[in-house]
């Protein structure tokens, strides 16, 4: 069995999504970046225009022997973002903040599609899930100043209001998956 798998997920501002998955046991890295567009436009100022095709996304490397892709999706849909908001999350509006899964392989695509169908059928949310599955898209790491933002700036008003509650939800809803010490990009060997 493989010891490492990768998931790329977009759910609004990448600071919070990265922060959540950095606290998940079995995750070996969570890197903020861009997916859905071209390499030449994978820069914060350009992506912010909403015209590059990119979404702010997070590349999550995890050990499938410790946490399944299905559990990653559970955390993504229930803690990391609101999958019913079209092209926005909270105060952030635009296609760059869309809810999207960038599957690494056909298995991830079919698991994601089935999971979304189950959630919609069970009417877990008060509205339909708008998460798109976007295969065959490259991921590009964001600028260094975006990495580990939640950990480095816990008092930043955006983090306090929008993202620290997600960490509390992770602790409460997934206590067995919660890790107190986040796995940080700054502490990992570079792998861009």
Low-confidence runs: none
Shape: globular
Total domains, how many? 1
> Helix/strand/pairing class, anyone?
alpha+beta
Radius of gyration: 15 Å
- Sheet with most strands: 6 strands, mixed
Question: For the largest beta sheet, what order do the strands appear in spatially?
Answer: 7-6-1-3-2-8
Q: Which whole number gives the mean pLDDT?
A: 95
Helix content: 25-40%
CATH homologous superfamily label: Peptide methionine sulphoxide reductase MsrA
Question: What can you see in these coordinates?
Answer:
This protein has one domain (5-173): Peptide Methionine Sulfoxide Reductase, Chain A. The chain has six helices and eight strands; from the N terminus they run βαβαβαβββαββαα. The strands form two sheets. A six-stranded mixed beta sheet has the order 7-6-1-3-2-8. The protein has a two-stranded antiparallel ribbon with strand order 4-5. The protein is 33% helix and 19% strand. The mean pLDDT is 95. With 192 residues, the protein is an alpha+beta fold.
Question: What's this model, at a glance?
Answer:
This protein is 33% helix and 19% strand. The protein has six helices and eight strands; from the N terminus they run βαβαβαβββαββαα.
Give keywords.
192 residues, Peptide Methionine Sulfoxide Reductase, Chain A, six-stranded mixed beta sheet, 8 strands, 19% strand
């Amino acid at each position: 069995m493989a010891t490492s798998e990768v998931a790329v997920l977009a759910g609004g501002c990448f600071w919070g999504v990265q922060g959540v998955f950095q606290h998940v046991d079995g995750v070996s890295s969570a890197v903020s970046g861009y997916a859905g567009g071209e390499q030449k436009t994978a820069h914060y100022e350009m992506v912010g225009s909403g015209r590059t095709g990119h979404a702010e996304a997070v590349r999550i490397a995890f050990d499938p022997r410790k946490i399944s892709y299905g559990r990653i999706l559970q955390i993504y849909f229930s803690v990391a973002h609101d999958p019913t908001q079209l092209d926005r999350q909270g105060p952030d509006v635009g296609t760059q903040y869309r809810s999207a899964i960038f599957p690494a392989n056909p298995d991830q695509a079919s698991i994601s599609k089935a999971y979304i169908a189950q959630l919609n059928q069970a009417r877990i949310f008060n509205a339909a899930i708008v998460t798109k599955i976007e295969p065959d898209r490259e991921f590009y790491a964001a600028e260094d100043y975006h990495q580990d933002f939640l950990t480095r700036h816990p008092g930043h008003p955006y983090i306090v209001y929008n993202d620290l509650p997600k960490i509390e939800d992770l602790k409460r809803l997934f206590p067995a998956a919660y890790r107190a010490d986040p796995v940080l990009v700054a502490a990992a060997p570079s792998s861009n």
